[in-house]
Amino acid sequence: MILILDYGSQYSKLIARRIRECKVYCEILPGDAKLEEIKAHKPLALILSGGPSSVYDEDAPKCPKEIFDLDIPVLGICYGLQLMMHQLGGEVVNFSKQEYGKTELAIDDRSDLFAGITENITVWMSHGDSVVKLPEGFQKMAHSDNTPYAAVSNQARRLYGVQFHPEVVHTQQGIDVIRNFVYNISGIAPTWNMKSFVDESIEEIRSTVGKDQVLLGLSGGVDSTTVAVLLHKAIGDQLVCVFIDQGFMRKDEARKIVELFNQSFKIRLIHVDASKRFFEEVKGVIDPEEKRKKIGHEFVRTFEAEAKKLQGEIPFLAQGTLYPDVIESAMSGSGVSKNAHKIKTHHNVGGLPEKMNFKVIEPLRKLFKDEVRLMGLELGVPEAIVFRQPFPGPGIAIRVIGEVTPERVRIVQEADDIVMAEIKKAGLYRKVWQAFAVLLPIRSVGVMGDKRTYLHTIALRIVTSEDAMTANWAHIPYDVLGNISTRIINEIPEVNRVVYDITSKPPSTIEWE
Ligand code: XMP
User: Fold this and answer.
1) What's the pLDDT tens digit per position in 163-200?
2) What b-and-e string marks burial along 182-221, b requiring 16 or more CB atoms within 10 Å of the CB?
3) Where residue 130 sits, what CATH number does that domain have?
């Protein structure tokens, strides 16, 4: 594997993505990880990421100096380069000429790191400090107008550093630079693939779990379904899934999930229809945060009650935690997201066991979302689940603005069903991040068949996004919007008006509550 030491760069996860695209396994550790921990991973190469610090900051994160003597290749990127230079006796200064954004790079040495790269490329820079003096044994490989040492190396010791960011798409041939480092300099073969990862995971699960049973909370999304199928492959009937139907799923979705698990996969499934209790719980609740909290608490209560019935019998609880969450919590010591302002209380199947007496296993903890999808496909999870759009934990309840009643949930389910069908028909389902309907707590006047109506309004929310942190309202063709509107009005008698939400995130959020 390749280890990435993270110094707080917003691009560290992207470096990991790129290495895995090279079909080489990698993991991220905090930048100040101890030498023993680094060595314990037995990395074949190291990458030091960028970061917001200056090497002269009092609390600047530092790597153990000994990593440069491990006789494995090291690539420092941005702050990683500066750190390497500083630790090995070079000089880094705060330059008046900072470089941000696209910059022309002239390559002086095209032997190994830049083999096959054109002489001049556009690269992505983002730095205030610069290297002005190289440590002994290092030489220049590339420069830009403002940065004399934009890439450097000590080829004998296989130590490399670049001031620019090869991992971002704005850097021309950036992926080729990374490939040169991985394949040519580090001599690592592109052998990591999903099939081998699945096989390894199955072995690991078997040896961890032995003959014991494992409990899994199932939501119907790609993560928990993939965990279920993986575990089932590894331990068969030792897996028990609990699916709590809150009554806030999409139309027919609960039935489809139960069918899939019982019939196609033959996985032991406890289906808890708790919808009555959830509707009772949210009765009269208007405030969105209160609604989320009530649903979240009821979910935990229901899950705990089910788990209690099985406790003693079942020592393990499986969760669909993904790598970005693992990185986030591992790095939160270094300040990431520590002070983030709470916008909404998210509720998921994850985060449950704090009070419960389970040993937790997280088979997806090393994977990115798109890798989970690959795993799902590898395991035969239907495409409809693998590529399912994100769906909030509290479900449709947060798409019914105002009071949640069975009747109002049904209206959104019907409208949502039409949105899904039309978006799929137009070939847009996988092009947009999410598409859904929201029921507004107002009525307005209309006219239908010469009669005055006074009925509900549905808002359509369709957005594009990379990661849900930001989103743009989708420029859906008018005829698709028109079809959705016509069908909703014709097929749902309680609705006489459809509007399209044309705000992005920020300032809005994707969900309305
Ligand atoms: P917002 O509305 O905050 O949503 O812009 C961002 C993304 O998160 C989804 N979402 C949730 N996902 N549990 C989840 O697993 C939740 O409680 C939850 N609330 C919102 C939302 O659908 C969007 O994709």
Assistant:
1) 999 999 999 999 999 999 999 999 999 999 999 999 99
2) beebbebeeebebeebbeebbeebeeebeeebbbbbbbbb
3) 3.40.50.880
